[in-house]
Amino acid sequence: MSDTTETPVAGRGATVIREIMSGGATRALLSVVAGFIIGAIFMVFSSEEFLAAAQYFTSRPTDALGAAWTAIAEGYSALFRGSIYNYNADNFEASIRPMTETLRFAGPLIASGLGVALAFRVGLFNIGASGQLLFGALWATWISTRVELPWGLHLVVAVLVAILGAAAYGAIVGFLKARTGAHEVIVTIMLNYIAAGILTFFFRTPELLREVDGGGTPKSDAPAETAQLPLLLGPEFTLHAGFILAIVGVFVYWWLMERSTLGFRFRMVGHNADAARTAGINVERMFVLAMAASGAFVGLAAANQALGVRAGLTPDIDGSIGFDAITVALLGSSTAPGVLLAGLLFGAFKAGAPQMQVIGLAPEITGVVQGFIVLFIAAPPLVRAIFRLPPPQKTTVIADWWHKLTTRGGAK
Amino acid sequence: MKNITSRAWTGLALASAATVILTGCAAAPTEGAGPVEPIDYLACAVSDEGSWNDKSFNQSVYEGLEKSKAELGVEIADAESATPDDFGPNLQAMIDQGCDITIAVGFNLVDAVNVAAEANPEMSFVTIDGWSNGATNLKPVNYAMNQSSYLAGYLAAAQSTTKVVGTYGGMQIPAVTDFMTGYYYGAMAWGTDNATDVTVVGWDPATETGDFIGDFVPNSGTSKTIAAGQIEAGADVLFPVGGDQFGAVSEAIVEAGIDGRMIGVDKDIAATSPEYAEWVLTSAEKRMTLAVFDIIKQIAVDGGAFTGDVYLGTLENGGTALSAITNYSGATAQADVEAKLAELQAGIIDGSISPLG
Q1: Candidates A60, A84, A218; nearest CB to B8
Q2: Number of domains in chain A
């Protein structure tokens, strides 16, 4: 398996993805560290105190260094206060609320991260989590606002519909790839726009999903109480059962990918589609199933977004989850525990951002940290250089490919 | 999770270390250096989607906060919302911070701010362009934008050589169509006064149909396409109601090669975006800076009590108004038009003219 010098062109994209994913926990951790260091640099240079003190750096450098130190410490302690534990709060509820917010934000990130991760393992790049989420949320909203069902059953049906809707939307991509060879990246991106358009149309049209007595805004009614994901810790906290759904998703994902026959076939296609075909696996069918399964996990995120709220939905309920899911899957190396931890980390970023803004930091800083983490994940040699890690085993696909590229025409 | 915790604890340790360092070098140059004495009042704001420097309503509110900080000495804190997911947490951050007043900017935050107000009855909230579902600690700030837009429509029709004027909106929501309806009837009023047919493209208040971008993304391709389409239909004065669309409109005007004008919204565009000034006829100002400043001043400095009463910005109280007219080249002399506008304004204030048809 490791001899990949004759990798067919069609399989190269998949193997590069696999190489990026196979970095292991050390590199993921170091990428996070590097991301935080870059974030600290941004904090220092956006601190007015530092910039003022830096002007007389040579005469009294302690001022500038102290200001830099303060900026970093204040920034990251605000992130801590906003995402883990608020030690400034007057009462117990307020002090632990940040942790519950982290979990709430992590729910949809973990679920959609699993979806993108599954596609990665099959050698597919699912950029369409956003569209799948919207499509699942659309039908879940239909069930939650337009259908009356008894307590319990209503929520179950709504969640299932969210999963099925997103899975169906994902399956379209797999089908188009299997039948026509259309590239999944292009197809998923285009389907994102289509899903957003369909959702806006439904939310705008009174006969469909627009809120009763609503104005002209595209907005749905709030989900019926019987269809809302129940709050886990009482009305003081917004944490709802969507997080449980995500955790269940993590276990299902682990079983599916590591223990089931289907998961084995998925991974085999991801490793080498040609070999899988030779071994008798229907690769086209796997593409459709994998994209459907990928969409199904994203559907859990759709349920989180559509049924975890107590107010009407607007067409941008996907927020940035669809794209954050890609970063979660990358950071989590597409493994179940990795995606769980990465989702929690990015959930903490989301929960902590308001506190960072309150102390005057730009909200973009956490985005910059996230972006750099992914950059480091995707650029293994860079991280190896920064942290002086030993070089990887000789025959990496990228190295071979580069070697072939640079020595083409030379003696074989 | 584990690693962020440990890092944040490290951050905590660093914070205390930094405090020790800082106490040694007596660095407090800006504290109390301003012209006003700082007072113990924390005014906070949460933005709608988009940033504070959107050259439109988010920015107007933020300038109100900064003005309050500079002139009244209040402390301020703020949070920008990137997605609707941020509304709740951002408001919660303000509550945790103990803000004396929290301003939620924009129609989209209305649900979130009502929830926050009901959950925190001891705190004060303001909703710009929103409403209160009954909470008395939530003050709605609304604007009768149809009033100034009526004047803008009248002026547009006077300026137009084709007697076709256009308008389009960001999204079809009441806070947007209010401008467009006033503009429509203003333009029609000029037609009646001068026995001339005037056509308004892009909005018909009778059928509630018109041209909308679908979002508030500044100067998008869609925006420019709509502007170009309206110019194609003969319009030579455009009134885009959707934040910063002035780049799109000015490009459409230049590319069509017509002697066109546009009318700004929310702020005096000729002053705030001088790069577009040569096409600006006037602006229908929504003076949120003023409202924010007045509300904060009344409570923080004048010692007034916070009430949930609606603040309605009108021509009468100066909450909305037309900016100075520039680049006017209509058939009627500018002085005559201005006199007529003053007359219409008086009529709207005393109620004899309805800007809503």
Answers
A1: A84
A2: 1
